Amino acid sequence: MSEFELKTPQYDGRFPFVNQTKHCWQNYVDYQRCKNKKGEDFPACKEFFKVSRSLCPDDWVSAFFNVVLNTIMRMITYFINSILITPGIVSLGPRKFGRSNYYDLERLPSLIGA
Length: 114
Description:
It is a single chain. This protein is mainly α. It has a domain at 20-85. The protein has four helices and two strands. Strands 1-2 form a two-stranded antiparallel ribbon. The radius of gyration is 21 Å and the shape is elongated. Its main location: mitochondrion. It comes from Zancudomyces culisetae (Gut fungus).
């Protein structure tokens, strides 16, 4: 990644107080959303990145990234375990009244319209 000049971001009326933690987090989240929709080279995404890097300590950015990565890994692990550990069935919905909604994998293509 290329070097850029760190400078104090402009005043943001959504965060009027001294503690800039929420400002840091919001710009980090905005950068991630923008990057996913428009790509890293989009000018607004670059601005979110600069502001988040200016406000957020490096340790916080690492922690944010780890939270996102761990969440994704938990979701993948849960999905794989539901298929490999419980062969023949997969959960396709939230728990209702203490019972899970399970469907046969053979019926899965018809359920999802494939």
